[in-house]
Prior knowledge:
Structural class: alpha+beta
Largest sheet: 3 strands, mixed
Amino acid sequence: LDVLRAHASYVASNPNARLVLQGHADERGTREYNLALGEQRADAVRRFLVAERAASDRIDTLSYGEERPADPNHADSSWALNRRVELEY
């Protein structure tokens, strides 16, 4: 949570900062389900950042679902890495 608070503080104190939250999921489930899950993850992080006073109009979300795995292997450890939100300025 400290890392997310630092990002919220950065967005709040830098009026030109724009942030995109990219939601990801592992390969299990349908494509539609994983896209929705990635969006839910990104939205959860967005709500946290806004609660920490980051400007909501400068934070966008999108979902890649299972399309961009951090680890392409098919194991529990890989799936855990693939369930994530990445922050891009």
